[in-house]
Amino acid sequence: MNKMRKGDAVIVISGKDKGKRGTVTSRVDATRVLVEGVNRVKKHVKPNPNKGQQGGIVEQEMPIQISNVALFNPGTQKADRVGIKTLEDGRKVRVFKGNGEVVDA
């Protein structure tokens, strides 16, 4: 089970964007996620008339390591680690390590 999913509210805990909050837009692979409004870079793009793409300098979001973000815990209003717990009916759920609340309600 993945500890980080699309749509999760996260806080950046290290790097140039430390302290910023955002939402996970997508998971790039097992170790990287794309977070809305975080790790924005300027990229020089060549024009491509076949795709109708203009050239110039484009600002876009780049993936960030999962180890550099933590889930936002609405109960404590802080970043929190996530664990996995098996319920009595056999389902696996994500829980916050700080207060033991279930992440997926």
How many domains, in number, for the residues? Answer: 1
The portion of residues assigned to helices is: under 10%
What structural class results from the helix and strand content? mainly beta
> What's the N-to-C terminus distance?
16 Å
SSE string: EEEEEEEEEE
Regarding CATH, which class? Mainly Beta
Secondary structure tally: strands = 10
Low-confidence stretches: none
Shape category: elongated
Description:
By secondary structure, the chain is mostly beta strands. The protein has a single domain, classed as SH3 type barrels. Helix content is 0%, strand content 45%. It contains no helices and 10 strands. The strands form 3 sheets. Strands 6-3-2-1-7-8 form a 6-stranded antiparallel β-sheet, with no helix packed on it. It has a two-stranded antiparallel ribbon with strand order 4-5. The relative contact order is 0.21.
